[in-house]
UniProtKB/TrEMBL annotation:
InterPro entries: DUF222 (IPR003870), HNH (IPR002711), HNH_nuc (IPR003615). It holds the Pfam family DUF222. Residues 217-235 have a biased composition (Basic and acidic residues). This is HNH nuclease domain-containing protein. One of its GO terms (molecular function) is nucleic acid binding. Residues 216-235 are annotated as: Disordered.
Length: 421
């Protein structure tokens, strides 16, 4: 039995969409509008896939052959992560009415819907007492509003974590990210002689691990001087080996506490107006309780920032940016402001050149990777500091006659669809 949409059987939709073509005389606007329609269709289809995956699970289709619905979906061609996402969404739609309504209308992608579902699950888990219906609706609307504002799924989850941290602080609970009792590390040898590693770590250990690996995972030239041929994943794996080698050397020399190498340092950002919204550089929001604990740790740098997440008053008049100024720029810019290259591969750039009288302070500095740094100095690109105390890029006239300002890479977010608005 088929459902019908506008008189057309659903089994006719596939060939209709499959036969779409982009003609040689198609305009950019036409392709753009069609793409928007396809994205909305994709959102609706993903919602229906979640609903139908839930129905398959409820009707016990997989259990008839002794299997699980997730395995059945993957046998049908779904990626395992997609199957997990559909089942997770399906299980939550009956209790999250606001999320279910927007999901069914195709307003949000399934990744965003999943972030809303997971975010609400996190908030509920961190509350010692069951949430009231009013609180459930309030938290749903808070996360939905952020998604409408253009937040990524990760940012939606970060907001949910902040809410969960606040609930845990207010009611005496321990945020999941800070609960060391549920830490896990497993390693499984594979048939081809390799090792698969899986870990679920609290935020402090996770931050230390990521900081240590990223500090050693930078690019290095090949012996012939050519660019590093390793992928990001390969560089991080090599960094892990360097850490293990350092541990082995320390043990052989009788050093048992690894005080020398590798050095792991954490950045803790504390908003001046909302100190309970403290966050670590790599893994994000933490509770106020943990923030107070970390503030006593000599390996943690606490950086006070204003409402625009700009570090307060850390400038100095010398030509080169100091180590502390660079750390502050990393907190604000997070990556190369032009292309998004990781902070470890960037240099500190004077927005107004030092030779022209530009000061060496945070309001005249930004992060640029080597190639973008050279391009800024040698091409028609310019950088200006906005009234929000963040860098903005001005493209060359040849690329944009109006030279419309472009925000720094870490501040470019998805824009709300006109129909969704």
């Amino acid at each position: 039995m088929f459902d019908y949409y506008g008189g057309m059987p659903i089994d006719n939709l596939l060939p209709t969409v499959r036969d779409l073509t982009i003609t040689s005389d198609a305009t950019g606007r036409e392709v753009y509008e069609t793409t928007k329609i396809l994205m909305g269709l994709r959102n609706v289809v993903d919602h229906q896939l979640a609903v139908h995956a839930g129905a398959l699970d409820r009707l016990g289709m997989a259990r008839q052959t002794g299997g699980k619905t997730r395995a059945l979906l993957t046998e049908m061609g779904a990626a395992p992560t997609a199957a997990d996402r559909w089942l997770r969404i399906a299980a939550a739609l009956t209790t999250l009415e606001r999320v279910a309504a927007y999901s069914g209308d195709g307003v949000f992608s399934s990744e965003h819907v999943d972030a809303l579902v997971r975010g609400m699950a996190h908030i509920e888990k961190r509350s010692p007492e069951p949430l009231s219906e009013v609180s459930r609706i309030e938290h749903q609307l808070a996360l939905i509003a952020q998604a409408f504002a253009g937040a990524t799924p990760r940012q939606v989850l970060d907001t949910a974590r902040s809410i969960g941290n606040q609930i845990a602080d207010d009611q005496g609970g321990v945020p999941a990210g800070e609960d060391r009792t549920i830490n896990e590390w497993t390693s499984t040898p594979t048939d081809d002689g390799r090792l698969e590693v899986s870990a679920n770590l609290d935020i402090v250990i996770g931050e230390k691990l990521v900081s240590a690996i990223e500090s050693l995972a930078g690019k290095r030239p090949e012996p012939d001087g050519s660019e590093d041929a390793r992928s990001t994943g390969q560089r991080r794996a090599d960094a892990l080996e360097m850490i293990l080698d350092a541990a082995a050397r320390a043990a052989e020399s009788g050093v048992t506490d690894l005080v020398a190498a590798p050095k792991t340092h954490l950045n803790l950002t504390v908003p001046a107006d909302t100190p309970d919204a403290a966050a670590l550089q790599w893994l994000g929001p933490i509770s106020q309780t943990l923030a107070k604990t970390l503030s006593c740790d000599a390996t943690v740098t606490a950086i006070i920032v204003d409402g625009e997440k700009v570090p307060l008053d850390m400038g100095h008049p010398q030509r080169l940016f100091t180590h502390h100024q660079r750390r502050a720029l990393i907190v604000r810019d997070q990556c190369c402001v032009k292309c998004g290259a990781a902070a470890g591969y960037t240099q500190c750039h004077h927005v107004r050149h030092w030779a022209d009288g530009g000061p060496t302070d945070l309001d005249n500095g930004c992060l640029l990777c080597t190639s973008c740094h050279a391009q800024i100095h040698a091409s028609g690109w310019d950088i200006v500091m906005g009234s929000d105390r963040h860098p903005w890029l001005l493209p060359p006239v040849e690329q944009d006659p109006n030279r419309t300002p472009i925000p720094a890479y870490n501040r470019r977010t998805m824009h709300l669809d006109d129909i969704a608005a």
